[in-house]
Amino acid sequence: MDDKLYKPGDKTPTSGQYEVTGPRGGSKGHEITSTQGNPLPPTPEANQRYRLVDPTKHKNQ
């Protein structure tokens, strides 16, 4: 799990599930899915951030 926090509007560094965190880093019980290179969406409330919790697993063919 990645401990780095990302702001809404930041480019998604890695495709996967991101949890919404509060101002002190605690989980808000909400997750979004975002793909690499796309901007992260606005959070439900001000001063919230995103943390990568489940990166997308790519199967090599």
- Give the % helix: under 10%
Total strands: 4
* Structural classification: mainly beta
What is the distance, rounded to the nearest whole angstrom, between the alpha carbons of the first and last residues? 25 Å
- Spans of at least 5 consecutive residues whose pLDDT stays below 50 are none
The major beta sheet can be summarized as: 4 strands, antiparallel
Our count of helices gives 0
Region (Disordered): 1-61
Protein name: YjzC family protein
Biased composition (Basic and acidic residues): 1-10, 51-61
Summarize the structure.
This protein has 61 residues and is mainly β.
Write structural notes for this entry:
The protein has 61 residues and is mainly β. The chain has a domain of 31 residues. Helices cover 0% and strands 38% of the residues. The chain is built from no helices and four strands. A four-stranded antiparallel sheet has the order 1-4-2-3, with no helix packed on it. It is globular and about 40 Å long. The model has no long low-confidence stretch (mean pLDDT 91).
Which terms would index this structure?
single chain, 61 residues, mainly beta, four-stranded antiparallel sheet, YjzC family protein
List the helices and strands and how they pair.
Blueprint: E1 5-6, E2 16-21, E3 27-34, E4 49-55
Antiparallel strand pairs: 1-4, 2-3, 2-4
